[in-house]
Specification:
It is a single chain. This protein is an alpha+beta fold. Helix content is about 45%, strand content about 10%. It is built from 14 helices and eight strands. A three-stranded antiparallel sheet has the order 1-2-3, covered by helices on one side. A three-stranded antiparallel sheet has the order 4-5-8. Strands 6-7 form a two-stranded antiparallel ribbon. A hairpin with a 5-residue loop joins β1 and β2. α7 crosses α11. The longest helix has 19 residues.
Length: about 375
C-alpha cells in the first residue's frame, strides 16, 4: 500500500486513507479514526478537520519504555534472531536509559535531538551507531502513532564522516601470502581462501566442505556465524554462537573459484562433507572472534599494522578492479545489493593505479 505523508495511504481501490489517533483505551492501546478521499489532498484536509473536531481523550502516562517492549515483541517473528538481539541491545543500553522514563505525550523533537547529541558527544558513540539507535527509536514511535505537536516527526540523523578503509598493498599482500603458504594449520588456509574469494569472516566460519564443489569449481555461501547476546533469562551464558542466513538476500551466492583457489582447496580437502572448513570437524567450529585473534597473530608476524580480517575483503575487491573486473560481476561475487555499494565502500585505488591512469592524460600544445 503506497504511503504519502504521515499515516496517509493509497488503497487498492485507488482511494486515499488517512489514519489519526481518535482516543486511547484504558489499557493504553490506541483507538484510530479513519478518513477517506479521492485524492491525497482531500484525505489530508479531512484528516485535519477530524483532528480539530475530535480532541484526544487524556492519554495515559505510559512511558516510552513500555512501548519499546511492545514494539520489540512484535518484531520477534519478523526479523532474524541476530537482528532481534541487536534491537534488544540498542533498546536496553541506550534508548530506555536515555528516554525510557519519558511519558510518550511529553516526547518532542527537541528532546530526541538532545538525546542524539548526548550519544555522540558525551557517550562518544560513532555516527553509524547513533543512526542505528535513532532508526530503532523511529520504529517504536511509528508503532505508537506518535506525532510531534507541530506535525509529523522528523529525526535529524548524524552524518557519517568518510573514513578510508585499510587495504593491503600488493607488496604487503605478497608478504602475507608467502607467510601463510608456509603454515600448515587450517586457519591459514581460510585466510588465503578469503583473499581469493572476498567472503566475510562469518561466512568463512560457517563454511562446510559440502559448500565447496571442486568438480564445478565453485564455493557456495549459504550461512554466516556470529556471536549474539543470549536473551534466555535462565541461561548463565551472556552470549551464544548462532549460524543464520547471510547478511542479506543478495549474500546467498555462488562464487567461482580460480585455479589457484581450487588447488588450495584440493590440498586441504576433508573427507567429511559436513565438516567445517576451518576445523575439519563437524562437531567443533571456530567462531569469528577466535579467527580475528588468529589473524592478528599472522598480521603481526608479517609486520602489518592497522589491519583486521575485513581488510582482506577490501583487498580482494581492489585487486579485482585492478585486474579489470566488470563492476556488476564483482558486486554479485561480493554479495552486494548493488554495484554502488561495491564502488563506494570496497574499491580502493592504489597509488600505482592512480599514476598509471594519470600517465594517460596528455595536454595538447605541451
Amino acid at each position: 500500500m503506497p504511503i504519502k505523508g504521515e499515516n496517509i495511504y493509497k488503497r487498492k481501490d485507488r482511494r486515499w486513507e488517512a489514519r489519526y489517533i481518535l482516543s486511547h483505551r484504558p489499557d493504553g492501546s490506541i483507538h484510530y479514526g479513519y478518513c477517506y478521499g479521492k485524492t491525497y489532498r482531500e484525505a489530508k484536509q479531512k484528516l485535519e478537520n477530524a483532528r480539530a473536531a475530535s480532541p484526544l481523550h487524556p492519554q495515559p502516562r505510559k512511558t516510552l519504555a513500555h512501548f519499546c517492549d511492545e514494539w520489540l515483541q512484535l518484531r520477534r517473528s519478523q526479523v532474524k534472531e541476530s537482528t532481534f538481539a541487536k534491537y534488544h541491545s540498542l533498546l536496553e543500553r541506550h534508548i530506555k536509559p536515555g528516554l525510557g522514563s519519558c511519558p510518550i505525550s511529553e516526547l518532542t523533537g527537541v528532546r530526541i535531538e538532545q538525546f542524539s547529541h548526548q550519544l555522540l558527544h558525551q557517550k562518544g558513540l560513532s555516527p553509524k551507531t547513533v543512526r542505528d539507535i535513532l532508526t530503532v527509536l523511529h520504529g517504536v514511535l511509528r508503532h505508537v502513532g506518535f506525532q510531534c505537536p507541530g506535525g509529523e516527526l522528523r529525526i535529524a540523523y548524524p552524518h557519517s564522516t568518510h573514513k578510508e578503509m585499510r587495504m593491503l598493498t600488493p607488496r604487503e599482500q605478497q608478504r602475507l601470502v608467502c607467510y601463510l603458504r608456509d603454515q600448515t594449520d587450517l586457519c591459514s588456509f581460510g585466510v588465503l581462501l578469503t583473499l581469493m574469494t572476498g567472503i566475510r569472516i562469518g561466512e568463512l566460519c560457517a563454511l562446510r566442505w559440502k559448500d565447496i564443489s571442486l568438480e564445478q569449481g565453485t564455493l557456495r555461501v549459504g550461512g554466516t556465524m556470529q556471536r549474539i547476546r543470549n536473551l534466555d533469562p535462565k541461561s548463565v551464558q551472556k552470549t551464544r554462537v548462532v549460524i543464520t542466513a547471510p547478511k542479506s538476500g543478495c549474500s546467498f551466492r555462488i562464487v567461482p573459484l580460480t585455479d589457484q583457489a581450487a588447488a588450495l582447496c584440493r590440498a586441504h580437502l576433508c573427507g567429511d562433507p559436513e565438516a567445517y572448513v576451518l576445523t575439519g570437524s563437524r562437531e567443533t567450529y571456530m567462531e569469528p572472534r577466535a579467527l580475528q585473534y588468529r589473524f592478528q597473530k599472522y598480521a603481526s608476524a608479517c609486520g602489518l599494522e592497522g589491519v583486521h580480517f575485513h581488510t582482506l575483503r577490501h583487498t580482494f575487491a581492489t585487486r579485482c578492479v585492478e585486474a579489470g573486473f566488470e563492476i556488476k560481476t564483482l558486486s554479485e561475487i561480493m554479495g552486494h545489493a548493488s554495484p554502488k555499494i561495491t564502488l563506494e565502500r570496497y574499491v580502493h585505488s592504489s597509488m600505482e593505479l592512480k599514476r598509471e591512469n594519470m600517465r594517460k592524460l596528455r595536454l595538447e600544445g605541451l
